[in-house]
Amino acid sequence: MSLKRLNIYNVRNIHEQTINPSPGLNFIFGNNASGKSALIEAVFLLGRAKSFRTSSIKSVINFDQQELIVSAQILLDNTQNQHLGIRLDGKNIDIRINQQASQNRSDLAYALPLQIIHPKSFELLDAGAQIRREFLDWGIFNHEESFLPVWRKYKKVLAQRNALLKEKAVSQLDVWNKEMANYGTLVDQYRSQYLEKLKPVLLNTISRFLDLSHMDISLLPGWDKSKLLEEKLIDDLEKDIRYGFTNSGPHRSDFYVTVNNRLAKDVVSRGQLKLLVICLKLAQVELISKERDKFGCILIDDFAAELDMENRAKILFYLHKIQCQVFITATEIGDFGDLSGFENYNMFHMEHGQIDQINVPCGTSL
Ligand SMILES: Nc1ncnc2c1ncn2[C@@H]1O[C@H](COP(=O)(O)OP(=O)(O)OP(=O)(O)O)[C@@H](O)[C@H]1O
Ligand SMILES: [Mg+2]
Asked: Which atom of ligand 1 is found nearest the CA of 331?
């Protein structure tokens, strides 16, 4: 699956641009503020209906315009095409899949699975647990279609239980404890099964990029598993009423990565941390590609940040081999390193929001 033709209207400083990306590697270079991240943001909007940089869509729409549009022709396999489009005006989201309107962001996410790596991605291993839960849940969402309704039910029941706790409506909690334990246990099962599948793929990916021994990844379920979740909810009742929210359950879960039994984020260098995050994200892509036989795009913004030339070369070689569509940005063309061994890539130059494809004969060393 790859974007064949991409149209961008009014995304930050990009007014109206159309490009024909390669189904493989796409390199985008240009000076600071030329619009490289805006291009990555445009593709991300198309697959996720949100920005990776801000929660305010208004700030992504070009200052002089009222709405932005991103659309693309997607090549599903050698013969089938799909048309995807999104229009955002800061209040409404208009999603079109093959000209049919859709209400659900999840339809877009299934139609165009995206993985993004950008300078703040190291937060996956260095910030609060929410971002790690989202990482796991995105992987499961792409892996098991049955997960999304269960996850939504759990969120709903949790919100209802928390509302009752705030009102101190103790008599009504019994029935919600059962519901929450039921869906919460399922969410936990999905997560632990997913992590078991991801682990060998991840360890294999890590071994390509990092010389670290005794790596491990483990799930923290969000409650003391020596008890059933329902028992824990009953035990916690007094505390939950005092705090006005539910203290135990998969909404508190987390995972951690260790090197020699120490938390990776405490012992590895910053460049290694970025590589670890890249490994986690690429392992997810590999797992989806294995089981669904298709993946959308990998987006890498500011490729050179914190990575030395040797590691950049290793990553590009890997990306070239997995045959997935990739968009990669850097300020200098030389930041991509020696591309003479690569075939069928496209090179784009950005300047003041304009994207120009550059002809680089294959096999040319840059
Ligand atoms: N809503 C907007 N409307 C118009 N221009 C905007 C808007 N938001 C940001 N910009 C401008 O768009 C330009 C491109 O920003 P972008 O972050 O895409 O640059 P970049 O090429 O990724 O730069 P860098 O190399 O520094 O990361 C900047 O000049 C920025 O100020
Ligand atoms: Mg940028």
From this structure: 25
Pocket lining: 63 vs ligand 1, CB cutoff 6 Å: yes
Could you list which residues have their CB under 5 Å from ion ligand 2? 37
Strand partners, 356: 349
Mutate to test the pocket of ligand 1, among 8, 9, 34 (most ligand atoms within 8 A of CB): 34
Q: Could you give the CA distance from residue 61 to residue 15 in angstroms, rounded to a whole number?
A: 10
- Number of Cβ within 10 Å of residue 91's Cβ equals 8
Q: Which CATH superfamily is domain 127-293 in?
A: RecF/RecN/SMC, N-terminal domain (1.20.1050.90)
DSSP, residue by residue, 263-320: EHHHHS-HHHHHHHHHHHHHHHHHHHHHHHS---EEEESSTTTT--HHHHHHHHHHHH
* CA distance linking residue 8 with residue 88, whole number of Å: 12
| pLDDT tens digits along 194-211 | 999 999 999 999 999 998
pLDDT digits (tens, 9 = 90+) for 318-342: 999 988 999 999 999 999 999 998 9
Q: Which of 206, 189, 177 is nearest to 146 (CA)?
A: 189
Superfamily holding 1-113+295-366: P-loop containing nucleotide triphosphate hydrolases (3.40.50.300)
Distance of CA 313 from the midpoint of ligand 1 (Å): 27
Task: Give pTM, 2 decimals.
Answer: 0.94
**DSSP conformation class of 332:** S
